[in-house]
UniProtKB/TrEMBL annotation:
This is Aminopeptidase N. Belongs to the peptidase M1 family. It is an enzyme of class 3 (hydrolase). Keywords: Aminopeptidase, Hydrolase, Metal-binding, Metalloprotease, Protease, Zinc. GO terms for molecular function: alanyl aminopeptidase activity; metallopeptidase activity; zinc ion binding.
Amino acid sequence: MKTSDSIPVKYRKDYKPSAYLIHETKLDFDLFDDHSIVTARLKLQANPNADPSDSLVLDGEELKLLEIFINGQKLESAQYETDSEQLTVWLDKVHNLNYQQNSFELMTKVRIYPNTNTSLEGLYLSNGKFCTQCEAEGFRKITYYSDRPDVMSIFTVRIEAAQQKYPHLLSNGNQTEHGKLANGRHYAIWHDPFRKPSYLFALCAGNYDLLEDHFKTQSGRKIKLEIYVDKGKLEQCHHAMASLKKAMAWDEEVFGLEYDLDIYMVVAVGDFNMGAMENKGLNIFNTKYVLAHSDTATDQDFEDVEAVIAHEYFHNWTGNRVTCRDWFQLSLKEGLTVFRDQQFTADQTDHAVKRIEDVKVIRSHQFAEDAGPMAHPIRPDSYIEMNNFYTVTVYNKGAEIIRMYHTLLGAGGFRHGMDLYFERHDGQAVTCEDFVCAMEDANEYDLKQFRRWYSQAGTPELTVTSEYDELHRKLTLHVKQTCPDTPGQSNKQPFHIPLKLGLLDKEGKDLPLQLAANPEQLTGDILHITQLEQSFEFTEIAQQPVLSLLRNFSAPVRLHYDYNDHELAFLFAHDSDPFNQWEAGQRLFARVIWQLCAEQEAGEVMQFPLHLVNAVQNLLSSESLDGRFKALALTLPDIKALIEEVERVNLDHLIVAHNFLKKELACQLEMDWLVHYQANHHVGKFQQDKTSIAQRAFAGVCLSYLVALEKPKAYELAVSQLLNSNNMTDAETGLKLLMHSNYEDKQQLADDFYQKWQNEDLVVNKWFMSQATDPSDPTIERVETLIEHPAFDLKNPNKVRAVVGAFAGANLAQFHRKDGQGYVFLAEQIKRLYSVNPQTAARLTGAFNRWKKFDDERQRLMCEQLQGILQLPDLSKDVYEIASKALG
Ligand code: 0A1
Ligand code: ZN
């Protein structure tokens, strides 16, 4: 068992510059089926900005050192030492070496075993092809190196392998040479002219299908674009290529940022721990975010591919040209790049819809993280395993913080800040503080208090009350802010919170906003909340307004304001801010759900409040609203988000209430759902324009209500949609709805679906997921059989996420079964996985994080599993960190 004293914790405050810099990195890869040889020639120099050191300490894990030379001198065993994590060379014992003054060359030769590397970090094989994943600390599994982001170097890479099996040999930068060798082998040499840290290194070798295109930059340079995929998948790459070109054009247009190399390559691999990786000039992607064809991918998949392609492309400036000084600064590149990809997607699709989708992620996942045992500021202060900090807090809350600069400074001010950031830091490894300074200096805007968003964890809460004085035509708002304690942090200081708001008159029009005093507290429609308690007096308010608060979710906070049903229905119908229009509907639904829970608690019969019917009917029949917006507004609040609204939850009541509301709405408006379904579901020629996508989304929600009726006619519609559709969006909607229903032939449908799609891995994952998330009772047995299915593979993270991740993360009813079997199942999978793939195992362990929300018995059962996990022999530090923090 791992104990806390055997596991080192890394602290942000301990940062020290590296004692040695690496000016040049020359790597030779000799790739073979059962092992690889890596020769590294590093040009090292003592760092003038660091404390001098007589020893050179390099990171290295799972490496077999074969040779070591300095300046051509073979080192003797007394001059160096290796352990399981490091190579130490005592430079003072190397003869005639003036290591404090002159640069010197270290040559190491190591043997590694990519063929048995299942962690998917370092160099590994996916579907018979070599690939790498080096962020955050994977490069040390390739060669001995100063594997930290502030050590930046010029890389030249020679790759040698069997020509027939590995015709494509790729690395970062430009190919400078290639040729044939004896014994059927060949080689290629790549040179990357940009200095980069080791985490941006990449290598791929294999036999791929290749899609080629090009992009002409704003300054007229022609860039080669190449997408490499498994044989037979070329038809599924066109959308990724089109997305890449859109992203390149958007970054030029919006941020004035142009691509810098002559070639941009994307390689898709089936085995990948995350979504994709921004390695310089050679992105490596999970196939899920490259491959998309309407037969096999949904509209959502298409949007996701476009977003991830853009995200990785945008990293070329925010991440690669300007990188992080240390891993505590991860949000510097990730929060910023997520914000950029969100803006890009909004520009390609619909701003309101995109905003709602992003906020749903924050509320269901980030609020949960912020209130749980893993809560951390967007710039964490410590970690045990860095891989555990690729979180919704660092990424998505980080993006919300960046969005607040944009809100406070305006698009123009934000752009000035970005320009100054690049002007100052291009080619450097910097900190979040450097970013704040650039924004501050470019705009002469004081961000002193705003900086607390980087240091304080937890979700701030705003409690607002209001008073209207008819006589003096005055509205007073009282705003209180608090932030709950989080692990290691209490007594939080007040944040600077931009609160965007509107005051609606009786017709729903926005009234002009004007403060009686302190005008600097209001910029346009943004109120600056900066103190624990503040009051604001609005003047010239002729009638009692309805308040629209936190428009567009202008800050990642929870807002408490005591709306009544009438006000919510009014906002749902009239708010000019589409985000708050959606929000009002969600609040209406949530109130009903909590009321239904209270009725169950009191042993009363649940009552459906008829006032909802009107509100929903109006929305359904609105001609001005977009179909995707309607789909979102008609979807009941996510149970995970609801759980985060209360201290402790009676899950059984919550699920019953949720289902009851859905079914009642289905019954009350049966004809409406049917009419709108029929008007929006099309079986003719497939189209993927905005209107068709919106119609499919809207029709899908209508069908979900119809299926909730549990009537044969409704099942027939869903079965027909599943079997007769000519696109995966409609097919998957039909499949999911039926798999989650009591339709008696659903198993047969599932079997047929598998037969049809068994050769399309990504579709098989949808098939897995639709079954693993079935909330009905035999599902636990079903998932037991799914993990034995020939298509399941514990070594493939996409498969693990599709079955185990989906079960634990998206099947609340079955994962939280009262008998604890859901918890036992998850713990068993973690036990099978932790030594195979520690990163993925740790992600799964996070499903236990919110155990304190549940009833005593469920708490006990979850803790029992967490304790069992902590007893495992040789537990990985990834899983240890999550499980031990969960238990506190
Ligand atoms: N930087 C990538 C995400 C990423 C992080 C870690 C990985 O392996 C541990 C892989 C990818 C991004 O933000 O896209
Ligand atoms: Zn990223």
